[in-house]
Amino acid sequence: MRFAPASFLLPCLLAAQVPYERIVKADGEPGVWLTYSGNYQGHRYSQLAQITPANVARLHTVWVYQTQNNRTEVSPVVVDGVMYVTEANNVTALDIHTGRSLWSWTRPIPKDLQTIGFGRTNRGVAVIDELVVVGTLDAHLVALDAKTGAVRWDAEVADYKVGHCITGAPIAVDGKLITGVSGGEAGIRGFIDAYDAKSGKRAWRFWTIPGPGEPGHETWTGDAWKTGGGSTWVSGTYDPELKLIYWGVGNPGPDWNGDSRPGDNLYTCSLVALEAGTGKLRWYFQFTPHDEHDWDATEIPVLINATVQGQQRKVMAMANRNGFYYLLDRATGEFLMGTPYAKQTWAKGLDDRGRPMVVPNSTPSVHGTLVYPSLQGATNWFSPSYSPQTNLFYVAVREMGSYYYKGEAEYKPGTFFAGGGERALDGDEAWGAIRALNPATGKMTWEFRLKSPPWAGVLSTAGGLVFGGSNEGNFYALDARNGKPLWDFQTGASMESNPISFLIDGKQHVAVAAGRAVFVFGLTGN
Amino acid sequence: MSRVIASIWFLCLLPVQAQTAPAQSTRPANLTPEDLARGKQLFEAQCAPCHGIQGTGGKGANLARPTLKHAADDDALFATIQNGIENTGMPGTWQMTDREVWLVVAHVRSLGRVAVENLPGNPVEGKALFASRGCAGCHIVEGLGGNLGPELTEVGARRSAERLRQCLLEPGKALPDGFVMVHAVRRDGFVLEGIRVNEDSFSIQLRDLANRFYSLRKQELQTLEYQPGATPMPSYRDKLSGIEVDHLVAYLASLRGQR
User: Fold this and answer.
1) With an 8 Å Cβ cutoff, are B41 and A367 in contact?
2) B134: three-class secondary structure by DSSP
3) Which of A176, A249, A252, A331 has the fewest Cβ atoms within 10 angstroms?
4) Domains of chain A, first to last
5) Does the distance separating the beta carbons of B200 and A451 come in below 8 Å?
6) C-alpha span between A408 and A387 (Å, rounded)
7) Topology alike, domains B8-112 and B181-227
8) Closest residue in A to B198 (Cα–Cα)
9) Residues of A in contact with B5 (CB under 8 A)
10) Nearest CA in chain A to B21
11) Span B135-143, mean pLDDT?
């Protein structure tokens, strides 16, 4: 009889002991991947440097995990020998050595559930203390025991029957779980919620559409605010020093017909900075006032330091769906700069306060108005990356225009409330790129062209690489300094996900989801 | 939100669309002339790019017919428009309200009420020409024929007579979406010309005119040139008489799939 190999007997620390302070110091522990973006600041950067331009050609598949029912957009979390992956209403804990399941938790999807405007998916968990926390399609936030997958608490965030839904990963801050909600095409009134990590009780709620008497309500007309959208469906970021949460807000409803909602429609298409303890609004910045193109501002707000006009500033950098790259002072919300990073035809530019100077006749029409970018934007929910090593901001860009149509918009609970749509220019008229931007100026340093507008984000590493994915199934590595392609692998499915990096037994690995699978890659040979 | 929301083509790939079929809706009674005009407007803006202004087909199916393959009755047509057709280029129209979809249903049905196109040619003569003029050397019809060109078994269901005529006389101006010929030169000097079969950011797959597959890594190529408008299909403008073209068009228009 043979015994299990020695590596199998190595202690596998299944209890995820992840106090808040450990997440704050995530940059000092590059062997794990503790949050959706790797750290609170949204960098999606790994300080691991074993995989380099010189050896990346030796990258091979170590194991593959096949999901149970659905395609997945998960960005896995890795802690103490365990990888947590998700698909819609499911979390599975995997042994990082083999990809074998340690436990799996599933919450049945109600038969009458509709995802209005998006697919049945999930993008990942948050870990805090001994909890693994996930949002569900039926709009619950569920905390699972990290060791067994047993439910510790289950909070109903909102009613799924009128279009609320959760697909994004929560973030865990000091004693609280923060989650957003989908439903921007169903006429919801959006919010950002915080739940007490111990009890699961709601600690605060910030409504993204201000009610009567609240500042910002004057940017709505009549009852339009009640169905004003402002979903919050992608994870935000957090500054542990300022104790501020940065969260992007989605489009106003109805999407493409703004006739019923004259005004700027705050805080749709804005970034809000909330006090973590109370949920109180510290500041906001609206990228696209009175949006009629569905350009949610739900891209990852990346927190970096940059020298702006000779001054070192703590900034928030965002490559927005509307085609502009922005820098804001993250303590005050002051607009510092904004510049296009992709083709856009809707604004002549931004004024000195960052408000777009809109081109006449660029709004949706009955016969269709051709505008760049498409309603999917110049980028979308998939993550950018910031490398402190190269001091470059990497972003997956969609070069695509659309004919925007204006249609009817009648609110009926639990149905589409969109008021039009688009017909995207596709085929060889649309393309994509990974672009490296100077984070202080937004100026492009290099680009790597992609066959079609991507749906996958990027990871940069201290090894000098940028990893990304394509619609055609390519997972690839570029030289972080110049964008030169160094390695690629055909995963066999369109990639709608974000890569991560971590250690297995002291060796650097890279993981990414494609279709219904999660792939883990490592170097072969010496 | 609408992340995915996506571009129509993208949504059509999501199996979720079938799972989220909306509640049954009934056709509104007593449509006014304004309603019908709105249906026409919606069709022309959002359907005509594939189905043609008159609904006679193009990239999408010919709809100017009394019966439709995927829509036996109005309810089925409503469902087809709203949900799309899986594994085809036909997306769902989540962005239209139920009422708007019904207006499009009414317009599509009105297209089918036009007189069936009376083609001047004789399909029997056309079939003989198809065999004798070499067409079958490159095209499969009902399981028989060469395989360099596209299969034509159902071409009459998808293309109007006008488009079929253009395919014969000016084939370079009537290429299917995504069809392109490429000229590639590898770093070792090997030259290849062929039809693009597939492509991603790192590789391209070709079929040359001898019908062999090639897989090329883009990094190993000196040049990769696309040749828009190029096709191995010759023009038959000077090879067939006017009446012969009519016969051939009538035959192709009669090809509606295996019975």
Assistant:
1) yes
2) coil
3) A331
4) 6-523 (2.140.10.10)
5) yes
6) 45
7) no
8) A472
9) 117-118, 185, 294, 375-376
10) A114
11) 94
pLDDT in tens, A59-76: 999 999 999 988 999 999
The reply to whether residue A476 touches residue B2, judged by beta carbons under 8 angstroms, is: no
**Which residues pair with residue A501 across a beta bridge?**
A510
For helices B242-253 and B161-169, what crossing angle results, to 10°? 130
Architecture of the domain whose range is B123-175+233-253: Orthogonal Bundle (1.10)
Q: Which residues of A touch B202 (CB under 8 A)?
A: 474, 476, 485, 488
Per-residue pLDDT at B176: 84
Place of tokens 């074998």: A100
pLDDT beyond 80 at B58:
no
Q: What is the ipTM of this complex?
A: 0.85
Contacts of A258 (CB under 8 A, 6+ apart): A252, A265, A290, A291, A292, A363
> Closest approach of chain A CAs to the CA of B163, in angstroms?
21
Closest by Cβ to B20, choosing from A114, A366, A367: A114
Q: What are the structural domain ranges in chain B?
A: 8-112, 123-175+233-253, 181-227
Neighbours of A353 (CB within 10 A): 8
CB nearest A450 (choices: B20, B44, B201): B201
Burial category of A517 from C-beta neighbours within 10 Å (exposed 0-12, middle 13-18, buried 19 and up): middle
A366: nearest CB among B4, B41, B49: B41
Residues A20 and A25: their CA atoms lie apart, in Å, by 9
Of A204, A172, A221, the closest CA to residue A40 belongs to: A172
State whether residue B246 is helix, strand or coil: helix
Segment B35-54 mean pLDDT: 84
Residue A416: CA count within 13 A, CB half-sphere: 30
Residues of A in contact with B201 (CB under 8 A): 449-451, 470, 472, 474, 476, 488
C-alpha pair distances (Å), B209 with each of A439, B195, B216: 49, 8, 16
A403 interaction partners in chain B (CB closer than 8 Å): 45
pLDDT of residue B60: 81
Question: Pick the catalytic residue: A294, A296, A488, A505?
Answer: A294
Query: Taking CB atoms and an 8 Å cutoff, what residues of chain A touch B8?
Result: 421-424
Can you name the CATH fold of B8-112?
Answer: Cytochrome Bc1 Complex; Chain D, domain 2 (1.10.760)
Nearest residue to B203 (alpha-carbon basis) of B191, B228, B225, B221: B221
Residue A481 to residue A52: CA distance in whole angstroms: 12
pLDDT recorded at residue A358: 98
Cβ within 8 Å of residue A170, ≥6 positions away: A125, A126, A133, A134, A135, A141, A177, A178, A179, A235
pLDDT of the residue at A16: 45
Q: Do A473 and B200 touch (CB under 8 A)?
A: yes
The tally of CA atoms less than 13 A away on the side-chain side of residue B248 is 25
Interface contact flag, B1 A251, Cβ < 8 Å: yes
Rounded to an integer, what is the distance from CA A236 to the centroid of its chain? 8
B-chain residues within 8 Å CB-CB of A234? 3
Q: Dump the DSSP string for B143-184.
A: TBS-SSS---TTHHHHS-HHHHHHHHH-GGGSPPTT--EEEE
Q: Phi then psi for A60, rounded to 5 degrees?
A: -135, 160
State the average pLDDT over residues A477-494. 98
Q: What are phi and psi of A165, to 5 degrees?
A: -165, 155
Report how far residue A408's alpha carbon sits from residue B96's, in angstroms, rounded to the nearest whole number: 7
A294: annotated active-site residue: yes
Which tokens belong to B138? 């490159």
Q: Which fold has domain B181-227?
A: SH3 type barrels. (2.30.30)
* Residue B16 at interface with chain A, using a CB cutoff of 8 Å: yes
Instruction: Encode pLDDT of A166-211 as tens digits.
Output: 999 999 999 999 999 999 999 999 999 999 999 999 999 999 999 9
Q: What is the 3-state secondary structure (H, E, C) of B191-229?
A: EEEEEEEEECCCEEEEEECCCCEEEEEHHHEEEEEEECC
pTM: 0.88
